[in-house]
Amino acid sequence: MAQDGHGNRQVRYLRRPVGRLEESSFAVEDAPMPVPAEGEVLLRTLFLSIDPYMRRQMLGVGGYAVPLREGDVMQGRGIAEVVESRHPAYRPGDVVFGEIGWRLYAALPGESLRPVDRSVGPLSLHLGLLGSPGLTAWVGLTDYGRPQPGETVVVSAAAGAVGSLVGQIAKLRGCRAIGIAGGAEKCAHVVRDLGFDACLDHRADGLEEALRQAAPEGVQVYFDNVGGAVLDAVLPNLTMGARIALCGMIAHYNATGPVAFRHLQSLLDKCVALTGFRIGFVPPERRAAAAAELMEWFRAGKLRWRETVSDGLETAPAALVGLFEGANTGKRIVRVAPGEG
Amino acid sequence: MAQDGHGNRQVRYLRRPVGRLEESSFAVEDAPMPVPAEGEVLLRTLFLSIDPYMRRQMLGVGGYAVPLREGDVMQGRGIAEVVESRHPAYRPGDVVFGEIGWRLYAALPGESLRPVDRSVGPLSLHLGLLGSPGLTAWVGLTDYGRPQPGETVVVSAAAGAVGSLVGQIAKLRGCRAIGIAGGAEKCAHVVRDLGFDACLDHRADGLEEALRQAAPEGVQVYFDNVGGAVLDAVLPNLTMGARIALCGMIAHYNATGPVAFRHLQSLLDKCVALTGFRIGFVPPERRAAAAAELMEWFRAGKLRWRETVSDGLETAPAALVGLFEGANTGKRIVRVAPGEG
């Protein structure tokens, strides 16, 4: 039952990051094989999802899935296969989604899991396009960005899991999509592979002016994944009555001091409606609407989707650190069980 | 026709303020007596309204009533008496509201004016409780703050024209009202005279913690008139799903550099809906609803209202400068015509 002839292995979260997140916040170690209690199932982890919110969770910020304490096994959503079941809804061989945690094997309550439909596509899609990033992109843009056909939609972290979908959905809704991403390579990917109308490199100088050139009529909708200086550059480019869907503030998560803004007054001058949102607090009926349309678009071949995948549980800490260093394109996944696809 | 035997006098706006607004941005000078053209009326100014938005207008920020250029006669709303009319809707002796400007006499198109009902109360009320500040307080709180009975409403610049009404309206809607104001005297006024449940002095240390003590269950609605450090202190005290009605950012208007925030992430963590608004862009039907309920409350004696009045056109520059120095309580008015009230 143990993988590679070894027992269980896990990643523990050792200490709170101060400033930059480092791999030294984690330790990979052997662990006892869990034994499922009544109502639980024993799971073999197939894929883990690596997401920006985890940085907030590590700081103990309330409202995220499980507040992490130092010394805990690292939490994280994933896809797993049922090895043994003591819950009536699951049988060995079933595939499930849940808060699996960073470990090869876990025993979890059946109630905490959700069955995964193997027929839709690669299993990892349930962590991305058809999982939280997809729902986040669709709900945030549709309900908080409220784009009208012909409007200009700007999205930061445009090469990331959420951002890459936001721009594609904006195009499907008849809008102009402008991405902001870090580096020429990501920008090229966003325009060439994802079909955005333009993509601006926030590492280059003069983002505010570059956006003014790219959107001379102004920006009606900004889907923000990063906050900080990028938000500050977008603010003076907003039109009267613009909407901001505030989905992430990666630039703030690693900040140890205050973050400076020059143009926050644009929120007032332009009568901006800004909505902070987190997919876990969005009404279930909106998530269902998102899942239905994303599935329809995916099956019709209308959505491009890219994953950055690394192999082995021990790559998870570096994968998470890399999210904040701009290291990945598309959805960041760790393939825990060799050979799964 | 000229007041005190002299001709016309006016205040010109000389140069753009950099940083702190100073009286030296203005010059008071004699001017020719205007002659009304066809369709215009000759007006004698009775009262001028002194408002924070003027600081933005002086910087040429778009969307405010009239973008000001250096050398222009200073713009400003006021109440005036018709001296001579070449417009069919007005007769000598009528009282009107409009963009009068800082001058003793003005000739303006009749179309740009609105008649004022002398029977309601002191004329200056039409610049405050029943004018833009009243409408701003009512619409901002009702439509963007959306308070529910039993919720806690916090308002900054609570002793000012807008803030003093926001807290009173919150109480009339069954909420708990907490003010934030500068100095013990203003705070005492806000609680004792205006009936707020509490008022915190932002000049004292530890505003963030003081608010946590005053609102241990958190803040559902923040009506912000100032931005900056006060906003930053309120942000971590917001509850999940809180609303911010962003009405003013006085702390930013005089800032020459960036403004630093420690807690902007609360917008995301607490899923906050923030709406910047300006009363001139609010739908007319909402302004009408505001005017109707404010009048009803005022006639029923349910709203307390205070003005700070100075006499003479030449006091207008100091009155405007004082707004940004925390010098006034209630609505700031300049009585231009002696003996009016």
Question: What keywords describe this structure?
Answer:
homodimer, 341 residues, alpha/beta, seven-stranded mixed beta sheet, 10 helices, 16 strands, 26% strand, globular, disordered N terminus
How would you characterize the overall build of this protein?
Chain A has helices spanning 53-58, 132-145, 161-172, 184-192, 207-214, 228-234, 250-253, 266-269, 284-299, 316-323; strands at residues 8-13, 26-31, 40-49, 78-85, 95-98, 105-109, 114-115, 152-156, 176-181, 198-201, 219-224, 238-246, 259-261, 273-276, 307-311, 331-335. In chain A, helix 5 crosses helix 6 (228-234). The first copy, chain A, has ten helices and 16 strands. In chain A, the strands form three sheets. In chain A, strands 3, 4, 5, 6, 7, 15 and 16 form a seven-stranded mixed β-sheet that branches. A six-stranded parallel β-sheet of chain A has the order 10-9-8-11-12-14, sandwiched between helices. In chain A, strands 1-2 form a two-stranded antiparallel sheet. The first copy, chain A, is globular, with a radius of gyration of 20 Å. The two termini of chain A are 20 Å apart. Chain A is an alpha/beta fold. At the A-B interface, strand 12, strand 13, helix 8 and strand 14 of A face strand 12, strand 13, helix 8 and strand 14 of B.
